[in-house]
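Cont'd.
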Amino acid sequence: MLHKAAGSDGALDAKTKELMALAIGIAVRCDGCIAFHVHDALEAGATEDEIVDTIGVAIMMGGGPAVVYGSAALEALKQFQLDK
Amino acid sequence: MLHKAAGSDGALDAKTKELMALAIGIAVRCDGCIAFHVHDALEAGATEDEIVDTIGVAIMMGGGPAVVYGSAALEALKQFQLDK
Amino acid sequence: MLHKAAGSDGALDAKTKELMALAIGIAVRCDGCIAFHVHDALEAGATEDEIVDTIGVAIMMGGGPAVVYGSAALEALKQFQLDK
Amino acid sequence: MLHKAAGSDGALDAKTKELMALAIGIAVRCDGCIAFHVHDALEAGATEDEIVDTIGVAIMMGGGPAVVYGSAALEALKQFQLDK
Amino acid sequence: MLHKAAGSDGALDAKTKELMALAIGIAVRCDGCIAFHVHDALEAGATEDEIVDTIGVAIMMGGGPAVVYGSAALEALKQFQLDK
Amino acid sequence: MLHKAAGSDGALDAKTKELMALAIGIAVRCDGCIAFHVHDALEAGATEDEIVDTIGVAIMMGGGPAVVYGSAALEALKQFQLDK
């Protein structure tokens, strides 16, 4: 239910909230969160460019380590695009 | 310049990126980041409801401590609204 | 010696301190800590239900990422039970 | 409701769960969490020695910064004892 | 004794280890650590420029929040210089 | 470019800044940062003893989890020495 809340629309739509959760997952270096939220952001209609922008904000707030985890997000993005 | 990048439009607009930075600031318990990003999100056109939704995502990803720092964000929001 | 201190009884018994260390390991997303402290909590006499409760507290304090790392703790628990 | 869950008995009693939440609060450097959970741990029947032991586990898992936040917990403890 | 170890010379001298501890304190957003380690780095012979460089590494590894805590380190530095 | 800045000399030389970045990487539990910064510290002329001292400071500031990530740094160090 925790994640259900993030997946529904409010003042912010589900896509924006999923991208936000992804940004946090990268900034706090949560490996297991990244593929999960990249997947759900794509499901909610996020484009590749929006995910790249999200990684950019995460790096701005997370510094060097977020570069590492942002790369994992890009990797996950590529993987989900190949799987389609 | 770091923060300038977040403040300009790309695939995501400046408002969304500021809200994202706010969400991360709450989730990583950065006291000094919170007032700063609430301020800039309002400047970029964020509504009160969007900030509340942002706090919600931060709490989902940050747990109990994010409740504490989310309250600080609400406090900052109220303050900026009074100052107008 | 650092971990020896946690493993002996004081006002709190060794089991409680090991569970506490596990809760922190989950909340701070320390992959390598989790199997280690699940193992030592079991050694100190913790039951499955107590470990599950511990994961619950960690999720309450750690949010979404703690769900990921809490799952790793459950996985480790299952593994140690099979190994017996 | 999040904190209600921690406050009720399960495999672990309310006191142990409050002490666990305090240990996490110290280890993750959540200033606002510390007084809150020291208060609730005392309410749930924790002794001074149990809180000191909890701080010890938090320092073992949180290192130098946890010494700083552990001191804040001791300060809060002393304050609540004076207020009684 | 924990901090004593950092304060003595080994392969790295005391000054370098104090600056390192300061860098970590900034990167992990430990308010109470910052004045403490700026003080001890100065005691160990660190120059203003070395502290500024240290803050730079912390920002590189800690991102936006480290800008906030790095400013606190500069503030502490200025204070200790006035106090001399 | 972010990492280029850390790699050049200033008040602190490149080696010291790389060791500092390694210390932070361990303290914040960034798996992917560790091999990277051990490698670059060696490239910048760091000795094995200086890396071990760096791990010591990281453990002092990061506690138990830093023991786990410090071991990963030692492992990476050994690997790079074998590769030479």
